[in-house]
Design a protein that fits this description.
The protein has two helices and 26 strands. With 361 residues, the protein is mostly beta strands.
Length: 361
């Protein structure tokens, strides 16, 4: 049976040994000296002048005096004398005056600073929280800072945060959540165009904006866009605002224009730009004035901002009138285009008319 343990060299109490306490206390001295190892210094080559009981050091190179011949060993001041312990490969010591961990390579003490900072190929990393297979890199904190390495520090002053996906059909994005439920996502989502989409519940998303990767064209997917016309001669009685009855849509991207009623309905609150106009066709006697206006929620056009008047001299099949106006609408408000002919009736000429609109903010 060996006399000591294989790793720490703690002495065994032999069978029928006298004064067992001596061997036991010696083992305690060893444990107290090398377990939870924190040394005051690792560069001294001779003992300090006034050591304190329990002080520990790593003996520096080419040591002299009481430390001579113990280079690299752990020196512990116990019972007013120095005891020395040879480290084993992989032992770790905290050096107090440097606030740095060192480890014994088998032939020398080396700083663990490089080992700690060179973290490579980690499967999981959690900062302030626990990482898992779903979120292998996780951080729980209130602030985060990324700053560029300056030219004075050997950098170039730039900072680029790179995100990469495998194929165009994959997604690379920044997902913003509220209570761990998605509310907004921006990135290359399923293609290589820049897309911003939003959600009220974390499951159904609406695309708010798309920027084409090749042209830079910006598409506001949910902003209403339509253009309509009436394809027959629309009769307008004298002296009354009358809907032009737009019954055809050239385009109606979000479906907010109802060709059956000739009415646009605002899907969201905001600012909308509208244009409308027509070419006049006489019934028999030319009116004294022709006007076009925008009707909000069925009301007759009532302000200069919503009404435009045609030429003072009206000629059938030649005279026309048009208006462009920006309206502030609430969700659900309706807009219709109406015509007015003073004194005498007439027609809005088929196909020579228009009503268009789009949301701008």
């Amino acid at each position: 049976m060996p006399d000591a343990t294989p790793h720490l060299g703690l002495p065994y109490i032999a069978a029928a040994q006298a004064q067992k306490y001596v061997t036991h206390n010696e083992a305690l001295h060893v444990l107290d000296s090398i377990v939870q190892l924190a040394v005051l210094d690792q560069n001294l080559t001779s003992p300090p002048g006034s050591p304190t009981e329990g002080d520990r050091y790593i003996v520096g190179p080419s040591a002299t005096g009481a430390w001579a011949g113990h280079d690299g060993e752990i020196a512990a001041y116990v019972d007013a004398a120095w005891s020395f312990y040879s480290p084993g490969a992989g032992w770790i010591a905290f050096v107090v005056d440097e606030a740095t961990l060192y480890y014994w390579t088998g032939s020398a003490w080396a700083s663990m600073q490089g080992v700690i900072t060179a973290l490579q190929n980690l499967a999981l990393l959690g900062i302030g929280t626990t990482a898992d297979a779903t979120n292998p890199f996780s951080a729980k904190l209130n602030k985060a800072l990324w700053t560029a390495k300056t030219a004075a520090e050997g950098g170039d002053g730039d900072l680029r945060y790179t995100l990469n996906k495998e194929t165009a059909a994959d997604t690379v994005s920044l997902l913003m959540q509220s209570g761990y439920s998605g509310r907004a996502e921006i990135g290359l989502i399923g293609d290589d165009n820049l897309t911003l989409k939003v959600s009220a519940d974390g499951s159904s998303y609406t695309i708010a904006l798309t920027i084409d990767k090749a042209t830079g064209k910006v598409s506001l997917a949910e902003h209403s866009k339509f253009s309509a016309y009436v394809n027959y001669d629309k009769y307008i009685g004298a002296g009354a605002w009358t809907s032009m009855g737009m019954n055809n849509a050239r385009h109606n991207d979000q479906g907010d224009f109802d060709a059956g009623a000739g009415v646009f309905t605002a899907p969201h609150a905001g600012y909308f730009l509208f244009g409308a106009g027509y070419q006049f066709k006489a019934n028999s006697t030319v009116p004294t004035a022709i006007r076009v206006g925008l009707s909000v929620n069925g009301a007759a056009p009532a302000s200069d901002a919503y009404i435009a008047q045609g030429d003072a001299t009206i000629v059938t099949l030649e005279s026309g009138v048009q208006i462009t106006a920006m309206l502030k609408l609430s969700a659900g408000d309706t807009v219709d285009v109406q015509a007015y002919m003073a004194t005498n009736d007439g027609y809005v000429l088929a196909n020579a008319n228009h009503f268009w609109g789009c949301q701008i903010a």
